[in-house]
Amino acid sequence: MIRREIAAGLALGSILGSIGLMRILLWQGFFNTYGQHYLLVALTVAFSLIGVVTFGTFAGSLLPFLLRRLGFDPPAPARPLSRRWST
User: Fold this and answer.
1) What does the pLDDT look like over 15-50, one tens digit per residue?
2) If you write DSSP's letter for every residue of 21-85 in order, what string do you get?
3) CB atoms within 10 A of CB 29
4) Closest CA to 5 of 71, 63, 70, 79
5) Is the pLDDT assigned to residue 82 strictly greater than 90?
6) Does residue 5 carry a pLDDT above 90?
7) What backbone torsions phi and psi does residue 73 show, to the nearest 5 degrees?
8) Triad 23, 46, 7: Cα angle to 5°
9) pLDDT range class, residue 84, cuts 50, 70, 90
10) What is the per-residue burial (b if ≥16 Cβ within 10 Å, else e) of 36-58?
11) Cα–Cα distance measured from residue 58 to residue 72, given in angstroms and rounded to the nearest whole number
12) Contacts of 67 (CB under 8 A, 6+ apart)
């Protein structure tokens, strides 16, 4: 399961990272917004998006296991807040 979630996070992060990379390259081409180090900025944004999305996917997939180990109901975080605390 962990491999599948990491693969999904890498795939989603790569899509978002490539969108971020292309946006920075386009803005640099049209408006010269990022200065002489635009490629480093673009790569930093792309790799950051890949890392953040992968970590978020991985942490989100482990949350039910952590909640079960702590004695809570694992599907509880997926319920809407209005139903969770209503009587």
Assistant:
1) 999 999 999 999 999 999 999 999 999 999 999 999
2) HHHHHHHHHHH--SGGGHHHHHHHHHHHHHHHHHHHHHHHHHHHHHHHHHTS-TTGGGS-HHHHS
3) 10
4) 63
5) no
6) yes
7) -80, 115
8) 125
9) low
10) eebeebbeebbeebbeebbeebe
11) 20
12) 73, 74, 76, 77
Cβ atoms of 46 and 20 within 8 Å: the answer is yes
67 is written with which tokens? 């909640």
**Per-residue tokens: 1:** 């399961």
Burial environment of residue 82 by CB neighbours within 10 A (0 to 12, 13 to 18, 19 or more)? exposed
List the structure tokens of 16. 């978002």
Q: Which of 16, 79, 4, 80 is nearest to 48 (CA)?
A: 16
- pLDDT at residue 1, as a whole number: 82
For residue 66, give the amino acid letter.
Answer: L
